[in-house]
Structure formats: C-alpha cells, structure tokens
Design a protein that fits this description.
By secondary structure, the protein is α/β, with parallel strands linked by helices. It is built from 14 helices and 14 strands. Helix 4 packs parallel to helix 11 and helix 12 packs parallel to helix 14.
C-alpha cells in the first residue's frame, strides 16, 4: 500500500498550522481538505503528521514531471547559487528557454515571451492582439476561466470569479460554450446550434461594435468542470477567426506539456493557433509562464511596452527548460495517453455501477466526473462530490475541491509520472468512495 493515513484528518500538527493560517491569512483561497502538505515525491504527498497520500491534483495540474524530480531540483539548486533575477537583462537561460519553446511548437509560432503566471500570459496575449490589430474587442466563452487579474477576469465566463470585483473591463463579448451533458439551449448534438459558429455570428451582428481583435478559449474548460467541446469544434472556430482576421488565442495554461496526451492539446485538433498561452506544467512547480506566437503579431510591440519584474528570471527559466527536457525525454505525453486509456476504462465501468456518477469526460491524465442525484434528472449533487473527496482523503487519496458550475465535478489530474500501481491504488480508493455514497 502506498497511501497510509495514520491519524485523524486533520492530524494534530496539521490542526496547529491550520489554526495559524486561519488567524493570519485571508479566507479568499479555495477550501481544500484540511491537510497540511510537508513534502512530496513523484505522485506521493506526505503531510506534516507523516500521513502519505496518492496525489490526484498535481498541485492543480502543475507538477507534470512529478513532485521534486531530482533533475529538476538540481537545476533549481544550482541556479539559486548563481543568479536568481536580472529583470529585462538577457540571461542564457531565458534565451535558451525561448528557443526551446519555438523549437517544440509549429514553425508559424516563432516568438516566445516568458512571464510568471498563467493570468499574466493571458493578459499579455490580449495586449499583443490589440496592439497588432489596432482593434480592442475580445470574444470569449461562457464558462471560461483565464485567471483572476482584471483582463483575464473580464475574459472569463463565470460569475464566481467576478462577483464583488466589478465593474469588469469593457470590450469583452461572451458566447455560449458547447456543454453537451448540460446543453445550454437544450438541443441534441446532431442539431445543436452551439456546434456551429452561429453564436459567434450573432455576437458580431448584435453586440460587437465591429472592432474585434481576438478570440480566446481553452481547449477544454477546466474550472467549469473539465468540459470538452465536440470533435472539430475548435478547428471550426479557428477557421471562423481566420476568415475574419481575428487573432485566435488558445489558453493552454492547464492543458499543455503532455497533460491531455499530446505535448500541446491543439496538436490533436489539426490547426495551429496564432498565440498560445502556457503555464503550470511548463515549470512543474516554479512560477513561470509564456506566450508563444507569430512574429507578425509579437513584433508589433515596441521596446518596453511589455515587461515583468520576475518574468523569465534565470532560476525559473532554467527549471522550466529542465522540466521540458524531462517531459520530452521520458515521453510523458505518450505516458499520459497510455494511462488515460486505463483511467477511462475504470471510470466508465464505475459510472455504469454508480447511480450518482452522471458523466465521465477527459483525455490523457485530466478527467472530470460529474456527480448527480439521479442520472435521469441530472440534478447536480455537490454534496456527493464533497463527500467523495473527504472520504477519499481519509483513505489516502488527495483530490482538489469540487469544481464546475454547481460544484459537483471531481477533477482527477495526477502527475504524468505516476506509477501504474500507484494510479490503480488511487482509482481503487476513488471507486470505494463513490460506491459508498
């Protein structure tokens, strides 16, 4: 057994630190299970009380190469002793990372701008599109999540991210996203208008002032419940943009570096976006992000028009370059594909057995499980989702707090290096927790 929970949850030491957190930190962060992480290796997390957990979070889709990969750690340690920040002064590691990002993406993506967070990358991509086109409107989608800064928040398509922080920035137009399990227009896939570009045409005809610079979307909507659009939809939207000279921005902060079974999710869709936002898995634990895009757009920026205090710092750049090399050398995208087939088989069997598991969706090593009170009514069951996460935690499986419009979706995203027996044990715990409802 890999998972080993020897205390109550939370354990005594965790209780002390959680109380410290409650006293000195604002309660603005998401409510996770009451476990205080101490250290982790690969796909196993150990808390401050010595309990070990199988990690199905990857720290919210970050540690694709696993926690504390020795080669990654060595790169961070070595660079920390040499140079950690240089502002906009070029370092070998930033230049090497930019070169690597251009090399591993299609030829049309020939510039890479290194930043710190996913939201910062989204903000930069929007600025690049506006600057290059001279236009200002941005189309995005209901349910989208692009970050919590004001531009990224305005692009987002869920109230929870915006509530109490308004007014949001003007110039953002939102279209419905195809959520087939809960179709917003109540249609069947064969005749659903959301599977066409009709909603986008309607936006242009009714809401837009004729000044659209860009469209931004995720390959799948992570925060809204791992919602995957129908096959061909992304390519169709891309083509629609190209016909109208609208910059297509793909937010791959969650989905890149092997997570969905290919290095980048767009590789499975048969097109190349104009700008791609990267984050999370690019650094596998260090804070770094990037925009990779076409020089015809990115070269429109004048010197000094975009910059970041810590963006592309040598420590994070070297760590990211090491993480990418590990991802490629160990073919973690291929591993995610192989293990994803195993996960899909297990989850579909579980859905057939459980009266509460309404929908299973995902690819590679990112999956969403939507829990309902009844499969016929599809009434969301957030209480079941929370109960499963709590029960699984007590048995040694770590999962992120429920996601989705109704807080009823479980997200599974283990590190891509997870060993077969560790993955199977984690799925066994998940199965027991769901069938105990």
């Amino acid at each position: 057994m890999i998972a080993n929970v020897r205390t109550e949850i939370p354990g005594p030491r965790s209780q002390e630190i959680l109380e410290m957190s409650r006293q000195f930190e604002p309660r603005c962060m998401s409510e996770q299970v009451p476990v205080v992480w101490d250290h982790a290796n690969g796909a196993v997390v150990t808390d401050v009380d010595g309990n070990t957990f199988i990690d199905f979070t990857s720290g919210v889709l970050v540690t694709n190469i696993g926690h504390s990969h020795p080669e990654h750690v060595a790169a961070v340690q070595a660079q920390a002793a040499e140079l950690m920040n240089s502002y906009d002064f070029v370092t070998p590691w930033r230049a090497k990372l930019a070169k690597k990002l251009v090399e591993i993406t299609p030829p049309s993506l020939d510039r890479a701008f290194i930043l710190t967070t996913g939201a910062e990358a989204v903000e930069a991509a929007i600025k690049i599109a506006r600057k290059a086109t001279g236009r200002h409107e941005v189309i995005s989608f209901h349910g989208g999540f692009h970050g919590r800064t004001f531009g990224a928040m305005a692009a987002g398509g869920r109230t929870g991210v915006k509530r109490g922080f308004g007014p949001v920035l003007p110039g953002f137009l939102h279209a419905p996203f195809p959520y087939c399990y809960r179709c917003p227009v109540g249609a069947e896939p064969a005749n659903c208008p959301l599977h066409t570009t009709q909603p986008l045409d309607t936006l242009l005809d009714t809401v837009s002032c004729g000044d659209v610079a860009a469209l931004i979307t995720e390959p799948y909507q992570g925060g809204s419940g791992s919602i995957i659009p129908p096959p061909g939809w992304l390519k169709m939207v891309f083509d629609w943009c190209q016909e109208r000279d609208i910059v297509f921005i793909l937010d791959e902060v969650q989905s890149s570096f092997g997570r969905t079974g290919s290095l980048f999710a767009f590789e499975q869709e048969g097109f190349v976006p104009n700008l791609v936002c990267l984050g999370k898995g690019i650094g596998s634990g260090v804070p770094i992000s990037a925009v990779v895009g076409e020089s015809r757009l990115m070269d429109a920026l004048e010197p000094g028009s975009l910059s970041s205090t810590c963006g592309g710092n040598p420590l994070c750049s070297r760590a990211a370059l090491t993480a990418i090399e590990i991802t490629l050398r160990e073919d973690l995208a291929g591993r995610a594909r192989t293990l994803g087939s195993l996960v899909q088989s297990r989850l579909e069997s579980l859905a057939a057995e459980s009266p509460y598991l309404g929908d299973v969706r995902g690819s590679g090593l990112v999956w969403g499980l939507e829990l309902v009170e009844c499969k016929k009514s599809k009434v969301p069951a957030p209480q079941h989702a929370r109960a499963v996460i709590d029960a699984a935690c007590k048995q040694g499986l770590m999962m992120i707090a429920p996601i989705g419009y109704h807080g009823n979706v479980l997200r599974l995203a283990p590190p891509l290096v997870i060993e077969d027996e560790c993955l199977e044990e984690g799925l066994d715990i998940l199965e027991r927790a769901i069938l105990s409802l």
